[in-house]
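# step 3/5: fold
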Amino acid sequence: MTVDALTDVDGLRVGHATRAGDGRLTGTTVVLAPEGGAVAAVDVRGGGPGTKETDALDPRNVVQKVEAVVLTGGSAYGLDAASGVMAWLEEQGRGVRVGPDPGHVVPVVPAACVFDLGRGGDFRARPDAATGRAAVEAAAASTQGAAVHEGCVGAGTGAVAGQLKGGVGTASAVLDSGVTVAALVVVNAAGSVLDPDTGVLYGELFQGRVRYPEEHVHEAARRRLAEVASKNAPPPLNTTLAVVATDADLTKAQAQKMAGTAHDGIARAVRPVHLLHDGDTVFALSTGTRTLDSASPLALNDVLAAGADVVTRAIVRAVRAAGSVDGPGGVWPSYGELYGKR
């Protein structure tokens, strides 16, 4: 049975560490690969990324698999969360073997951050190594195929989508071939997820399952957004992060292609996107338990198309799952507050 989440890809687990209250509104999310790692790649399109260990994912370089991927708040400060994940992995003996002793490993833990500094009121409240460790321990403690918490959790705790509250979302699809493709996103976009003329989420327009809000509801929402915009400083740096994964057996080059086409899923749901003050980054993971049709050089196409589609759906789910925030760091209404669940 699937749960419409990244964890539908066999072997992947997700853990969140959420830090809210007392000036904090931030957190970290860890995607834990099965023991032995997953083939990984990355594609960065934003002009202001904050990342760690992404060069290791270049298909030309020696690292073939990674044990975990970290998505975190705290801007570049929050990348320290990856250190806590590395420490935990080292204790488990998981990583690239670099010596004769089984414990001589170096875990490769790619990471990317979103800008959420000060959104809880305290600019210095940000994830650290302990936060990363808590997130990876939560992932390790979860069961195979567990549902993934969405909304204002983990790296999405302080996320903002335009003038709306953002967050974490996830989605999956099973192809006719039996291959599973799934995504997890952190929506913290400088661009908008909302069509200003109709109040419909851009991602839902693409999906074709649209229920337009009544005109008086939309007008009330527009007034509310104008009111809170005057209270909040414009976000200086924002980012949408994603992990797109499959159980298809991909090479690093094929995984990099999947990461690149998955950006199309962001572009369908966020406008504008990939600007100089965005850090939009997509990681791709392959657990390799299903083989693609080797007789068809285009067999990868279905995986690529599905990757973009599940990213779009995950963005919609993130925005719909988010709750409103009204605190010392700012006011961000949720989509549900403005338009209801519909």
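# step 4/5: annotate
Residues 193 and 270 are 5 Å apart (CA to CA).
# step 5/5: archive (pending)
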